[in-house]
Amino acid sequence: MLFSRKIAFIGVGNMGEALLGGLLKAKLTNPENIIATDVLPARLKQISEKWQVDTTTDNNKAVKFADVIVLCVKPQAINDLLTDIKESIRGEQLIISILAGITTGTIEKFINKKNPVVRAMPNIPAVVDEGAAGLCLGEFANDNDHKKIALKILGSVGEVEIVSEAQMDIVTGLSGSGPAYIYMVIEALTDGGVMMGLPRDVATRLASQTVLGSAKLVKETGIHPAVLKDQVTTPGGTTIQAIKELEESGLRPMLIRAVEIATIKSRELSHYLEQKNNINIK
C-alpha cells in the first residue's frame, strides 16, 4: 500500500484514467481512497463501473475529500478550475499538476496559499504502463513526503525523471509530445512496407515491433544508439544505403527541430496563461 491518503483526480480523460488505474493495478491504494471528477456524467459512469471509485461532477466536493489533488484538465481550463476550487483548497493538501506549460509558481500564486505543488509531464504510453514523465517540485514541496507521493503516482504507469522547473518545457517537447513523432515514424515505415508489397496488417505489426524492440535494446543495454546503428550497418548493404537517404532528407534535424518547436510552444503557453491571469512569476 502506498498510503491511506485520499486522492482526487480532477479530470479523467486518457491521462487521468491512466494514473488512477495505475495506482489501483499496482495495489498502491484502494478504490475507496479515490474520487474522480469530469464534466461528462457518461464518462464518470464509465470510470466508476470500471474502477469502482467514487465520481462526481462537483470539483469542490472532490477537493474537500482529498489529501492529494491531481489536476488532469486541459491547461486552457486552469483559470476556471482554480477559480472554482481555490476556496476549498486546504493548506496541507498536495497538488500534483500534469498540465502542459503551467508552472508550479503559476498555481501557487493563483491560489495564494502555501500548498506543496508538484508539476509533472507524463505521456500517453502511460495508458499501457510504459510512460515517461518529468517531475519537479514547487517552492513549498519537500523531498520527503511530497516527492515520494508524486513519484509513486507517476511511477505506477512508467518511469519518472526528476528535473528542474526550467527543464519541464523541454520534457514536454521531448517525451510529452514525442509519442506523436514516433507514431508518424511507425506509420511511415508501415506505408513503406505496403508500397513494397506487404499487407498492411503485417507491415504495421513489423513496424511497431521494430520500434518497440529497438527502444528496449537501447534502454536495457545502455549502449549509445549510434553504436547500435553501426552494429546493423554492413559495408555496401541495404541499411547504409537507407541511412544515406535519411541523412540527405534531414530526418535527424527534423526531429531535433520538432522537440525545439514543442518546447517553445510550451513556454509560450505558460507565459500566455500567466499574462491572462495577471500572475507575475519572478
Number of helices: 12
> What structural class do helix, strand and pairing data support?
alpha/beta
Low-confidence stretches: none
CATH topology of the largest domain: Rossmann fold
Head-to-tail CA distance between termini = 39 Å
Radius of gyration: 21 Å
CATH homologous superfamily heading of the largest domain: NAD(P)-binding Rossmann-like Domain
Strand content: 5-15%
Average pLDDT taken over every residue: 93
Spatial sequence of strands, sheet with the most strands: 3-2-1-4-5-6-7-8
Number of self-contained structural domains: 2
Helicity level = 40-55%
What is the highest CATH level, the class of the largest domain? Alpha Beta
- Quickly give the CATH architecture of the largest domain: 3-Layer(aba) Sandwich
Can you write the helix and strand succession as a string?
EHEHEHEHEHEEHEHHHHHH
Taking the sheet with the most strands, its summary is: 8 strands, mixed
- The beta-strand count equals 8
